[in-house]
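Figure 2 data, in text form.
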Amino acid sequence: MVHAFLIHTLRAPNLEDTGLCRVLYSCVFGAEKSPDDPRSHGAERDRLFRKEQILAVARQVESLCRLQQQAAGCSSTDLQPQFSAEPVSLHEAPHGAFHLAAGDPFQEPRTVLWLGILSLGFALVLDTHENLLLAERTLRLLARLLLDHLRLLTPAVSTGAAYCRAHPSR
């Protein structure tokens, strides 16, 4: 089961930018109560609790994306959006999956599948037993459809790829 879908900002590694990761959109499917208190909280407190959980996932995705880009040998200039006539390729975009232990930040263990495109992070929070191949294809399809709808993948409007392309000399 998918527990959440989120879109958030990604920053390039090695930049002086001290801005925080921002969640641009999130949708949580199902409710999870605060782990320390079985009694019912107000709707506002539950909303803030879910917001904190989603922000924790977004920060971990951003951290892993930056780590993957640095490990690939990308410099900060390689990760800046470039003006280009080439369409953005979703197959070259950084992606991955990681496991969240119970209590960090959800009560149950979860798997997070993520994709980084054009300084945006897309993530699905899943049950640990979900089919990751199917979930990855679904996430790529969602990202492509959203970016197509916003006209971010077309060469005329695109600000370029915000992910590292391997240098031939490396």
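Caption note: The first helix runs from residue 43 to 71.
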